[in-house]
Amino acid sequence: MAIIEAEGLKKTYSSKSGPVHALDGMNLSVPQGTVKALLGPNGAGKTTVVKILTTLVQPTAGSAHIDGIDVLRDPKAARRIIGVSGQYAAVDEGLTGFENLEMVGRLYHLGARESKRRAQELIDQFELTEAGNRPVKGFSGGMRRRIDLAGALVIRPKILFLDEPTTGLDPRSRLSMWGIIKELVKDGTTLLLTTQYLEEADQLSDDIAVIDGGRTIAAGTADELKAQIGGHRVVVSLVDAADAPPAREILGRHGDGEPSVGGDGRTVEVAVTNGPRALQYILSDLGEAGIDLHDAGMRRPSLDDVFLKLTGHRTEDASEEATQKETAA
Amino acid sequence: MSVLAPENRQPENRRSAIRGGTPEPPSELSMWFSDGWTVTKRNLTKLKRSPDMLIFAVLQPIMFVLLFSQIYGGSIQVEGADYTQYLMAGIFAQTVIFGSTFSGSAMAQDLKDGIIDRFRTLPMSSSAVLIGRTNSDLVLNALSVVIMMGTGFVVGWRVNASMGSFLAGLGLLLLFSYAFSWVMALLGMSVKSPEVINNASFMILFPLTFISNAFVQSQNLPSALETFANWNPVSALVQAARELFGNTGTLPAPDAWPMQNAVLTVLIGAALMLVVFVPLCIRKFRLISSR
Description:
By secondary structure, chain A is an alpha/beta fold. Helices cover 40% and strands 28% of the residues of chain A. In chain A, helix 10 packs antiparallel against helix 11. Chain B is built from 12 helices and no strands.
């Protein structure tokens, strides 16, 4: 049995405009010692899954087990083996970094001396010395997030849950957070991570589940998913919009699937398997056909591309997030 | 503190025990004590660090003391008692009841900050956050009352009763405020933002403290309000404190059961609030989640 096992999870919130199905029959299985990423846009149900598995929310239907413990029946036993760090850093701003971690240790019942020792150890390990002895308020988002993550690690949990660990961080803090997480899972901690970024899921996880509308719509390794949507995308920008049909034909010749033409009528794009080689051929064919370009290049597929491919629709961040917030409150 | 700390009873090999989970949990009772204490300490640390909370809690009652005893005092007649002596018990009751509303806004703030989610994923006692909250607000209220008594002393208020009676009065004020903290904590967990609680609590506190005997005699109020005032639990608290501090002069207690049996009414009221709201709060806490 996998260390995280959830079946048929449903969660329905009532709202003024009728019931909202945050989760609609979600299954999840994470083998011990692996990293699983739940990838999806805002409102897809990622956070709700994490909240159910970490005992914060009761599902409307379904079952959830971690390490053989029934999370719904025995939340207290579940809480003894998990570490959780959320999207919004759950630190006490009025306390220092050290006091925050020490308090968490005491509430895990590590005892006074061990709680202090572990708090200091984490402060050193996460380079939080600056925030160690001063109240957390006034420190940057990245620093708070690190303290929050350290809070999740006070007991060296069997299972670690990270809900959007880098959302809202600047690129530098994001890279440093990735480094920390990679280091953490080296020793075989099971990690369930949610993210909106394909690249993040790719960097950190062994296995990805793509979530939409409260359900898993695709699953596999990052490579498998990428093969499904094409490894790279070649994008060309035309000088003359009239060249779009022949350009489309050329891109289609070297790409996987139908090329798309952007709303401006000049940007043509296609998924490709071997990026650099396809780009070379495409440029050479376009040159032969005498089509002039403003710009040409490759880009990595985004979550949007994954979604377009898998669901036929783009992500609907803004509207779904608004409903989610209103009803979850 | 050593009495409360559960670590003495834990196995020696704690270092290995924390790998892959926490040590065996302490018993329910010791967990209840130690977790409650941990959260109380957290709140007191914050109170110590930003004492503006305390200043905010006493500033308004100090202004009320000055307003009523120095400005309106001359126009308010209390048959058989000096107005300043009469007034102070009302001020004390108002101070602790307003102080208790902090339990509500602090719970709402913790929810907003997401720290409640952190607590709820820890294997701690599910009543500890509430116990810690109400405990530290009791400390805040005790400090506020002591400051208000000092203020009263400056404007001429005196205790005309034995030490035991004085302490009983003080204890009654704090007991009532402690029980009321649980009422406010439930309210704090039920609103969407800490700002709401300040407005909502004012809507409740305004009639409770002003349609009472805190500042004027209930018999001088219009008759419907007089009945309300006589049965208002805040009036009973004020009446009880007035009696125990020896501030009633030759004034007889109003002719209504709660006024005739003020101390008993306060004890019953506080017990009722605790019996009803402690379980409601714990139940609510188990279900709430920040976002």
